[in-house]
């Protein structure tokens, strides 16, 4: 439901997906002096409703230890724990090669949260938890509320928006506009912000699989000639051991896999993945996502910041996209909290520049990692295969290297 009319806020966030909702919660917690509005064009998720927002679909998200720490500070962990499975070990392997790397929570104290390297949470559960928590804050939730136009002025942003049940346009002014409207953002196009895109010509096939035995908190990342494949632990449901599958493959192969019967798909999966997680008994319905690297050429301007998929949309290898976004949001909120204390406007350019510069190194490393790893492991060059195995050997033999790899994977890398 659209709440009562309001005209001016310190921060307006457009998009109530994982990025926008998380940022709004952080603002409520760390910058209580700021008035915040969140505008989402679709109906918000709640416990009883079917999922309508793209963020909160049938996927499961690997949340790093660093992100769990953030959720814990926001008071969300006690509820999220009921819907999540801990990651206690990450096992990385390369198909057709003997060497692999295993990272254990017990040996990576720096990179763990309550003895976990991270946790896997089903997006359909994450949505209602984030939005229920938001409903208990002073953040003004406007939904369904579609932003139809934005205009940047000297004092801030002016938004035009429309409720689903009403054709009248309303106006909202904000000192800071945060665009969190997802990949291929229409608002960025309207603002003249260009995007650099590399099409991987791959798709991620996502489903839930049923297994004969317990996963024991192990997350598997397996590199095959076609691309990486992840099997992530999920909580048991109706007595069934479950894991979330993200199988990345070329577009044509994804098409033919999607046409297989459940039994034939399970057989192909078992052959490609092997037996380290035991027998795969069944697979749920398949969902297919096109993969690209998409980077906005600008992430901040006076009175404007981009967060989430509209700022950077990554290959899902190693589950980095949302974890990176949470670190961006945390950095932004810290900058805004400092501004509040010094009574500086939230949209001031030097403040936003400082935030943006502070996030560059982490973004470059994380984006570079997610872009290069799939092609490195897909290469049929003997030289690259040799280097890859040498890299695995280095990780397997050298604890400091392994700790730094675990640190990066668990979100404590920087
Ligand atoms: C297959 C796959 C697996 C992944 N796995 C992981 C993982 O394990 N770990 C990890 O860290 N990351 C993972 N990611 C990345 C993660 O899903 C993204 O970081 C996350 O979805 C970012 O969401 P968002 O809020 O930026 O965008 P979106 O989910 O697209 O949300 C944008 C919202 O804006 C709203 N909106 C759009 N336009 C308007 C408008 N004009 N007015 C009002 N509202 C508007 C939309 O309705 C939508 O709700 C994965 C991604 C994929 C594709």
Automatic annotation (TrEMBL):
Molecular function per GO? 2-octaprenyl-6-methoxyphenol hydroxylase activity; FAD binding
Q: Which UniProt keywords apply?
A: FAD, Flavoprotein, Monooxygenase, Oxidoreductase
Q: Where is the FAD-binding domain?
A: 9-360
Q: Which GO terms describe its biological process?
A: ubiquinone biosynthetic process
Give, as in the UniProt entry, the pathway in which the protein acts.
Cofactor biosynthesis; ubiquinone biosynthesis
Which source organism does the UniProt entry give? Microbulbifer donghaiensis
Q: Which Pfam families match?
A: FAD_binding_3
Q: Does the keyword Iron apply?
A: no
Q: Which family does it belong to?
A: Belongs to the UbiH/COQ6 family.
> Which interval of the chain is the signal sequence?
none
Return the protein name: 2-octaprenyl-6-methoxyphenol hydroxylase
Output the lineage of the source organism. Answer: Bacteria, Pseudomonadati, Pseudomonadota, Gammaproteobacteria, Cellvibrionales
Q: Which cofactor does it need?
A: FAD
